[in-house]
UniProtKB/TrEMBL annotation:
Species assigned in the record: Trinickia terrae
Protein's GO biological process: amino acid transport
Descriptive protein name: Branched-chain amino acid ABC transporter substrate-binding protein
PANTHER family the UniProt entry points to: AMINO ACID BINDING PROTEIN, LEU/ILE/VAL-BINDING ABC TRANSPORTER SUBUNIT
Alphabetized UniProt keyword annotations: Amino-acid transport, Signal, Transport
Gene3D superfamilies: 3.40.50.2300
Entry similarity comment: Belongs to the leucine-binding protein family.
Keyword Transport assigned: yes
UniProt cross-references to InterPro entries, sorted A to Z: Leu-bd (IPR028081), Leu_Ile_Val-bd (IPR000709), Peripla_BP_I (IPR028082)
Length: 368
């Protein structure tokens, strides 16, 4: 009996290896944004590991189980099932709305929490799953904020709208259009491309004849960059408005000097205005030897939110983590993190940027 008791006690206090899943595009056109988020998540795990984590009396070693969903909805569901099979306790991801939305059902069926650092389409958290959360503002906030800035600050009256036909790009454009029309802005045309398009001259020639004050493009930097560059080559003077998928440091090189005609929005506040932004930026650049693109602080905080839920639940059981997450009140790099009844972050803010001399420059912050 003593031997059995000793074994049980040893087992009870044995070290645990706990996997946190991560999924984003790590190859393809959106790879830079995906890798940036992965770096943020990895930095959080390394920090937590260096300090030591104890849950329910056991030392916990965290591992990042990182998967490439290639920004493809079908691949995303395969990746989600793999992470479930790997027995991760929670997932930080996916990177994009078009992948996060279909993956969400798989995590829900498995009872595993999913925290996206970057999916902004409102539908992501409106599917009725108790496992779905995000630490970033939604397109229902970002699209209207961009429209409001265009109307009330830039005083634009006529706007052409283009999107890349993805859940993200189309969703952002839809929200922009609704708010723009409500503000009395005339939406003179609506066109769709794809997230693989590289030649926009046909659409841009048509839009040039319409003489808009601005062109709103819902899409990622890989397409918005060439779009802006080709617009400049066609002598189109209209401002290019875009959302967070385009609002990266990489856009400056993709669009060249035409980036200076781009105004883009990001959910959240600028890194330099985040409560922990300056310290995080310093740590990130020291660890990875490159600047933050966009989502790293959100992925970093998402990992800490998962660990906070573990501590409050006193368990690494995925089901107990899911139960603890709605009561989250965590102060991270991006600020206070609390969730509403859908799993969306409360207290959303939107930041507006442009580009000067090849650098992304903060313009304004809009509280939502």
């Amino acid at each position: 009996m003593a031997a059995i008791l000793s074994t049980q006690m040893t087992s009870a206090f044995a070290d645990q290896v706990v996997r946190i899943g991560f999924a984003a595009p790590l190859t393809g056109a959106s790879a830079r944004a995906g890798k940036d988020a992965e770096n943020g998540a990895r930095l959080a795990l390394e920090e937590i590991g260096s300090k030591g984590l104890v849950v329910a009396g056991s030392k916990v070693t965290l591992e990042l189980d990182s998967e490439d969903d290639a920004n493809d909805p079908r691949t995303a569901t395969q990746v989600a099932q793999k992470l479930v099979d790997d027995k991760v306790v929670a997932v930080v991801g996916h990177g994009n709305s078009g992948t996060s939305i279909p993956a969400a059902k798989i995590y829900s069926d498995a009872g595993i929490a999913q925290l996206s650092p970057s999916a902004t389409n409102p539908q992501y958290t409106l599917q009725g799953f108790k496992t779905t959360f995000r630490v970033v503002a939604t397109d229902a906030q970002q699209g209207p904020a961009l429209a409001d800035y265009a109307s009330n600050t830039l005083k634009l009256k006529r706007v052409a709208v283009v999107d890349d036909a993805t859940a993200y790009g189309q969703g952002l454009a839809d929200e922009f259009v609704k708010k723009a029309k409500a503000l009395g802005v005339t939406v003179i045309s609506r066109d769709a491309t794809s997230d693989k398009t590289i030649d926009f001259r046909a659409i841009l020639t048509k839009i040039k004849a319409e003489a808009p004050d601005a062109i709103m493009y819902g899409g990622m930097d890989a397409t918005v960059g060439p779009f802006a560059k080709q617009a400049a080559q066609l002598a189109i003077k209209a401002k290019i408005l875009a959302g967070d998928g385009a609002c990266t440091e990489q856009l400056a090189s993709l669009a060249s000097s035409a980036a200076e005609n781009v105004i883009c929005s990001e959910p959240g506040i600028a890194i330099e205005k985040m409560p922990g932004g300056a310290a995080f930026e310093k740590k990130y650049e020291a660890r990875f030897h490159e600047p933050i693109q966009l989502y790293a602080p959100f992925a970093y905080d998402a990992v800490y939110v998962v660990v906070d839920a573990m501590k409050r639940a006193n368990s690494t059981d995925p089901a107990k983590i899911v139960v603890a997450l709605p009561q989250t009140d965590y102060r991270g790099v991006i600020g206070e993190i609390q969730f509403d009844e859908h799993g969306d972050i409360k207290h959303g803010a939107i930041s507006v940027y442009t580009y000067r001399a090849g650098k992304k420059v903060f313009i304004d912050s809009l509280k939502m």
